[in-house]
Amino acid sequence: MAYRFKLNEPVDKGLLRIAEEQIDLAIEHLRSGEDRVTAIHEGRKCLKRLRALMKLLRPAIEGEGYRRENERFRDIARLLSGTRDSDVLRATAQRFADGGTAKVRKAALALVAGEDAARRSAAAPGNGGGPVEEAIAALVAARKELDVLKLRSNGFGALRRGLEKNYRDGRRAMMAAYDEHHDEAFHEWRKAVQAHWRHMGLLERVWPEVMGARAVLAKETADLLGEDHDIYMLIAKAMATPEDARRPVDNRDLIAVARQRQQQIRRELAAKGEALYAEPAAEFADRIGHYWHAAKAARRLARRNAAEAAETSGEEIETSNDAAPRREARPAKDQVPPKRDAKQGPAGPSGRVPAQTLERGQDFPLPTSDGSVPDEPNTGKEGEKADAKAIGQGRKGKVKPVRDGAKGSSGASPRPK
Q: Which residues sit opposite 61 in a β-bridge?
């Protein structure tokens, strides 16, 4: 399923097509029976794509359509977020446990054990049908109501304002994050970058190389911001976890190592963010608009050229079919009788040697007894005698047979005096 708009498709049709595909994909993952962690992770990714799609088209959606659908998909994601957050926290703590000191390892494994206990409690009987079943039911209902979404415009204008607004929000969030250095500020920037990354995927066809490069940069930035947020959640959990009096665990070393890794991530993010948001929002949106219109024009030109080529090819085929019978009606070359007056070499069409060609000392193949002319002239002494005798006889008006059995042309013309 391609998460992108098609250049030959109205934007409103693309909106419904992409939304339906992502809803169906989310339901498929949640119903698949695959690993629970993977199923929920993939389902949440579909919900993020849906919300990014709605955010891109927000200014163009009529009435309360955006607010209704955005809240719907946000609430479905929250049904799965508790389970997902627990899985992420557990995985993050395990990474620090694997590479940390003894104290760090002890504190991290204590967090892993606590998350395992919380998961078993959530899976105990009597806790209802579970968040996954609720999410599936909500997605089924959402799919049935998608067709109520209406757009105010149906070209690039339906995309431009949302593209510009999200880019501007991300640019401002980046500046705020580095001004304030608060975890929540980096989390807000992360949400804008994730949406921008998906917007580049939706618009990939306007210029695949350029949009693909931006998507890669945005994805790398979003991944780093995601790790930063995971560490932030780990730190918050470690600071809120009371120490067990029987098995005291000191989380200070774990928190210090986590903060150190955050600082490394944020130094990397500064360079990537500067490249990602290198131009003002309005200029960025205008540039993408030029790509959009140029790509559509190129597509129209390619279609016209293809149609003209097909038409020209059809004419050539028709012409060749008309000429085929005429070619077939022509006789083969070996069936065409030679013309009497045509000059076909020195012997002429009759096979006789003209008298004027029988000059003394001239090399010329004499006719054989069957009237044909050999490919090569007579050579050797016997050939020279036969040539001389034939030339002498030609003066008398007749050519007598030569000794080697070949006969000259009896009708050869005498040499003029």
A: 151
Phi-psi region of 63 (alpha: psi -120 to 50; beta: other; left: phi over 0): left
Are 96 and 258 a contacting pair, CB within 8 Å? yes
AA letter at 20: E
Residues 6+ apart with CB under 8 A from 122: 82, 83
Given a contact cutoff of 8 angstroms between Cβ atoms, the answer to whether 364 and 353 are in contact is: yes
Per residue of the chain (417 residues), give pLDDT as tens: 689 999 999 999 999 999 999 999 999 999 987 788 889 999 999 999 999 999 999 999 999 999 999 999 999 999 988 778 888 899 999 999 998 899 999 999 998 888 877 766 655 544 445 889 999 999 999 999 998 999 998 899 999 999 999 999 999 999 999 999 999 999 999 999 999 999 999 999 999 999 999 999 999 999 999 999 999 999 999 998 665 544 556 799 999 999 999 999 999 999 999 999 999 999 999 999 999 999 999 999 999 999 988 888 876 666 555 554 444 445 555 555 555 444 444 444 444 444 444 444 444 454 454 545 454 444 444 544 544 454 454 444 444 444 444 444 444 444 443
Query: Is residue 61 classed as helix, strand or coil in its secondary structure?
Result: strand
- For residues 256 and 249, what is the distance between their CA atoms, to the nearest angstrom? 14
d(CA 331, CA 336): 7
Extract the tokens encoding 363.
Answer: 């090399």
Do residues 387 and 366 lie in contact, with contact meaning Cβ atoms separated by under 8 Å?
yes
